[in-house]
Amino acid sequence: MIATPDRTPLPRDFFDRPVLQVAPDLLGRLLVRETPDGPIVLRLTEVEAYDGQNDPGSHAYRGRTPRNAVMFGPPGHVYVYFTYGMWHCMNLVCGPEGRSSAVLLRAGEIVEGAELARTRRLSARNDKELAKGPARLATALGIDRSLDGTDACATGDTPLRVLTGTPVERDQVRNGPRTGVAGEGGVHPWRFWVADDPTVSPYRAHVPRRRRS
């Protein structure tokens, strides 16, 4: 018998920990996106950790900028960035305030509101692909830069929050190199995923972008 997921919101002190503790502990948690058309609930199945100024792969490696300011805390806030001029990606800030660490949400299973997610992900061949990859996840949930800085631990009406869900057993958590990260940051085995889950995205090594001649 499958246990009913816990709908208790995660407290701020859950996020106020080192990023390599928070990242695997997010697997199995529920991300709730409230929209004017109704809620979408996603069970997290894949994430990546980024350790700020200690991590060459992090947006905050070279310090604070207007773009990455949310990464410096407080923990439990949402960091959204726009990449390749096309896609948004969503992160959850963690660690002590001022540390600039965050967890990229890479993939998940839509457990409620799939009919709404499908209207945003018309190219998905099935529901397992609705949020299979960080840009697809953000698109399915209607995530954009207007949500950058949202407090996912706030009480009352909030567009995003994270619930306790059903944490994944440690023997079902896998880890390996982060996807598409170049240079020194590419060697860190800081991608975490649920073993054998069909919503997890495939690993891809970094491929340098060719300049146009």
UniProtKB/TrEMBL annotation:
Keywords: DNA damage, DNA repair, Hydrolase. Signal peptide: none annotated. InterPro entries: Formyl_transferase-like_C_sf, MPG, MPG_sf. GO terms for molecular function: alkylbase DNA N-glycosylase activity; DNA binding. It holds the Pfam family Pur_DNA_glyco. It is an enzyme of class 3 (hydrolase). Gene3D superfamilies: Methylpurine-DNA glycosylase (MPG) (3.10.300.10). Its EC number is 3.2.2.-. The keyword Ligase does not apply. GO terms for biological process: base-excision repair. Belongs to the DNA glycosylase MPG family. This is Putative 3-methyladenine DNA glycosylase. It comes from Streptomyces longwoodensis. The lineage of its organism: Bacteria, Bacillati, Actinomycetota, Actinomycetes, Kitasatosporales.
